[in-house]
Structure formats: C-alpha cells, structure tokens
Design a protein that fits this description.
Length: 307
C-alpha cells in the first residue's frame, strides 16, 4: 500500500488516498500529504487502517509526487563508499573533503528542493545546458512527519552535475539544485510495511533509443550511516511544519565520462518501496510540462496544478 497524491483531471482536483495493489485508490478525507504529516505516526496508521472513502480506479488518475505545502526535500551525501570514491575521482583538487566527510561524525546534508519544484513519476528531469557530465542518483528517501517521526519511504532521484561539483565543491548548490533536478516516486510506502529499510535492493537502468546504456544494482545494507542518525542531524536545529523528505545518498554512480543525454529514460526501482521513471530533457524550453509548471507556480504559491 502507498499513500498517494493524485490529480483527477475530470473533476479538476487534487486528492490524497491509498493506492492498493497498483489498481485502486481509496480516498482519504484530507486535502494534502502535509495535512497527513501533521498527524502522529499512530494517528496516521489508524487513519490508513480505517480508510473507507470512495474507491477509485487508479488508471483514471494521475499520481503526483507525494510532496506538497511547505514540505521540503533534503539530501544526504557521501553515505556510501562508492559515492565517496567517485566524487574523489571527479574532484581531484578537493578530493579530501569527500574522504573526510565519509568518516566524520557529522554527515553532509543539503536542501534539494521545495515542494513545487519536485518532479513526479513520468515527468521530465533536466540536465543543465552549462554542465558536461550529468548523472541520476537513485536514492532511498525517508519521509518524516511534522513531529520528527519517520512515517514512510519513497524513491528519490537526486539528479546532479558532476562537472560543476567537480570544478569546485562550493558550486554544490548549482550542481544539485535547479529546475527538474529532483524527482520523487509515486507514493509513500508506510514505515510499518517496510520491515528492514537497510536491506532493500536498488536498481538503476538508463536507456537511450530503447537500448540500455547503463545499469547497476546496489543494496541499502551498504549505507554507511543509520537512517535515524541522518534524520537526527536534519532535525537538530531545524523544524519542518509540514514534514520533510530526506534522501539518503546514492551508491550507484555511472563511471566517468558517462553523462545523461536528452531523450534518455532513467528508471529506478527500490524493492518494497517503489519505482520512478523519468525522461531526460536538456533545454527547459523544450519541456511543455516544465514551462507550464513554472507559469502555474508563479500564479499559485501553493504549487502547480499540473493539469
Ligand atoms: O557531496 C556531494 C553530494 C553527494 C551525494 O549527493 C550523494 O552521495 O548521493
Ligand atoms: Mg545524492
């Protein structure tokens, strides 16, 4: 079961519900994911268990990323050995910062996205025109409620520019935070349905013109830090009144000089959690969805309607 946010194009409204067996959505009597994240974990579980709203055919709805209101997406970095080694390769002059942060007590955490910028399943992700090497970063993401409790998991793609970060680590925000650089999966798998988040298979496949150009597999058992430790640092001097998504870092990084190209399809699967598939664009103007999202968001600070 996944907690989902959906667009009903017929009725021109956004709703929230439970996706059951990928075929049916049982509506919940709330207006947003953030409203659900105001509940305690017990209240949320009770609300999901007692759901008896209208049942909808999931194929008639468009699933939106489960991030809305004042929610933010944050990300942890260099949490897997493979990520540390690849970043040391791309950044020879500043290689030691990755070495040091991997073993330091304090993890690397950064803001990845506000809610309205998040791209959902099937929507385009972008690579920057001023960046030579661009990669997807498939990551397990933890969903934390307004009280600081982990309530579920989802899939995040922390799309990044390796060349901009490699030039100087102080360029990290430009390498990581730009329009359509953050994609989040179609729903939240509740924490009570994922017995061991440190034993999940992650796969990444990149296809170009129907041909696989890169694929890899990993498992969250190789994560160098506890999930609770990452969430603890995130909340140490911060509060998230509508909840927050914390992406926990990547262990799959295509070796240099591989780069994403416009037209590629990036497919991520995390066992028991979900999947995420997005086409790649390089010129924002070429993506109708992005252009509409920007226009929409500027009219509605609450977020794009995405009709
Ligand atoms: O240090 C840069 C970011 C690393 C990152 O995003 C990751 O390891 O997933
Ligand atoms: Mg990352």
């Amino acid at each position: 079961m996944h907690i989902v946010r959906f667009l009903d194009s017929g009725q021109q409204r956004v709703g929230v519900g439970l996706l059951i067996d990928a075929s049916q959505v049982v509506e919940l009597d709330v207006r947003s994911i953030s409203e659900l994240l105001h509940l305690s974990l017990d209240e949320l579980r009770g609300r999901c268990g007692a759901a008896d709203g209208p049942v909808r055919d999931a194929t008639t709805l468009r699933l939106l990323p489960p991030v809305d209101g004042l929610m933010e997406v944050w990300a942890a970095g260099v949490t897997y050995k493979s990520s540390q080694l690849e970043r040391m390769r791309e950044s020879r002059e500043s290689a030691s910062v990755y070495d040091r942060v991997y073993t330091a007590e304090r993890p690397e955490l950064f803001v990845k996205s506000t809610a309205w910028r998040v791209v959902g399943d099937g929507e385009p992700i972008a690579v920057r025109e001023d960046s030579e090497i661009n990669v997807p970063e498939p990551e397990l993401a933890v969903v934390v409620n307004a009280h600081g409790d982990t309530v579920g998991y989802t899939v995040c793609n922390d799309v990044s520019s390796r060349s901009i970060e490699g030039e100087n680590p102080l360029y990290l925000p430009q390498a990581k935070v730009y329009l359509a650089s953050c994609a989040v999966g179609f729903g939240i798998r509740p924490v009570w349905e994922v017995p061991d988040p440190r034993a999940l298979d992650i796969s990444l496949e990149i296809t170009r013109g129907g041909v696989t150009v890169w694929q890899g597999r990993a498992n969250t058992e190789a994560l160098h830090r506890d999930l609770a430790e990452l969430v603890g640092y995130l909340l140490f001097a911060n509060r998230f009144p509508d909840g927050v998504v914390l992406s926990t870092g990547t262990s799959l990084v295509p070796a240099l000089p591989f780069s994403l190209a416009a037209g590629d399809i990036v497919e991520i699967k995390i066992a028991d959690v979900g999947s995420l598939s997005n086409p790649v664009v390089s010129r924002l103007a070429d993506s109708d969805w992005l252009v509409e999202a920007i226009e929409d968001a500027s009219r509605r600070p609450g977020g794009p309607a995405r009709t």
